[in-house]
């Protein structure tokens, strides 16, 4: 009989947040301008979050494009009212001209 696998558990920290709370969070730049919103997360090799997908531009979903940013590019905080806040050091134009992320293949919606 094979030995049982050892499973370690994570102790949730006060500053932690869940992915469901991040979805649709507005993304702002350092000048506090709204530049998009978090649309999805990419989990690389089934193990860790490798990208945060930000929807940029468009109106009511028309003309919107997506940029995949490394998690380290986004600072997440919780406002006093409990809402989420995401900040990146980029402009809307920089995100619009970034390589476009597409929901296709294994990363379909």
UniProtKB/TrEMBL annotation:
<dbReference type="Pfam" id="PF05239">
    <property type="entry name" value="PRC"/>
</dbReference>
<protein>
    <submittedName>
        <fullName>PRC-barrel domain-containing protein</fullName>
    </submittedName>
</protein>
<feature type="domain" description="PRC-barrel">
    <location>
        <begin position="17"/>
        <end position="94"/>
    </location>
</feature>
<dbReference type="InterPro" id="IPR011033">
    <property type="entry name" value="PRC_barrel-like_sf"/>
</dbReference>
<dbReference type="InterPro" id="IPR027275">
    <property type="entry name" value="PRC-brl_dom"/>
</dbReference>
